[in-house]
């Protein structure tokens, strides 16, 4: 069997000493793309590979440079995730505020809506004036 035929059934191998959402700290994950039931015997070499990888990973130690590099990557990923979560939180707040405004507007009379729009225009003009003057008073 060719290597290409063998690895077409392997989606990924993930080895980590930190796996969020798991009760286990160290994790080795394999994901396979299962063939038809009649071709299951084609997975036998991959099953043997699982044991080879487990044995190899147990013997492998990261160099100090590799540990430092992975630490930097993890810190960057954590920061990116935090920024993303913050952005999602802000978007949710904006949507909630917009919904509240829409509910309030539905209850208003046309003259009240007009007054509210005028106030909003004034606020926007004030903001623009602050930005154009550099925020100085």
What's the layout of helices and strands?
Blueprint: H1 3-7, E1 10-16, E2 27-32, H2 44-59, H3 64-107, H4 110-132
Antiparallel strand pairs: 1-2
Describe the structure.
The longest helix is centred in the middle third of the chain and has 44 residues. The termini are far apart. The model has no long low-confidence stretch (mean pLDDT 87). The protein has a two-stranded antiparallel ribbon. With 137 residues, the protein is mainly α. It folds into two domains: 58 residues, no CATH class; 67 residues. It contains four helices and two strands.
The best one-word shape is elongated
**Uncertain residue ranges:** none
Count of separate structural domains: 2
Q: How would a textbook summarize the main sheet?
A: 2 strands, antiparallel
By secondary-structure content and strand pairing, the structural class works out as mainly alpha
Order of helices and strands: HEEHHH
Walk across the major sheet and give the strand order. Answer: 1-2
Key features of this structure:
137 residues, mainly alpha, 2 domains, two-stranded antiparallel sheet, 2 strands, elongated
Summed up:
By secondary structure, the chain is mainly alpha-helical. It folds into 2 domains: 58 residues, no CATH class; 67 residues.
């Amino acid at each position: 069997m060719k290597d290409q035929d063998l690895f077409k059934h392997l989606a990924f191998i993930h080895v980590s000493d930190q796996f969020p959402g798991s009760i286990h700290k160290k994790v080795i994950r394999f994901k396979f793309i299962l063939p038809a039931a009649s071709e299951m015997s084609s997975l036998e070499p991959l099953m043997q590979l699982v044991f080879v990888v487990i044995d190899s990973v147990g013997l492998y130690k990261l160099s100090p440079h590799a540990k430092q590099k992975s630490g930097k990557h993890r810190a960057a990923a954590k920061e990116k995730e935090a920024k993303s979560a913050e952005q999602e939180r802000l978007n949710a707040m904006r949507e909630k505020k917009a919904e509240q405004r829409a509910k309030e507007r539905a209850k208003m009379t046309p003259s009240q809506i007009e007054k509210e729009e005028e106030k909003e225009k004034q606020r926007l003009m004030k903001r623009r004036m602050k930005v154009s003057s550099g925020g100085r008073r």
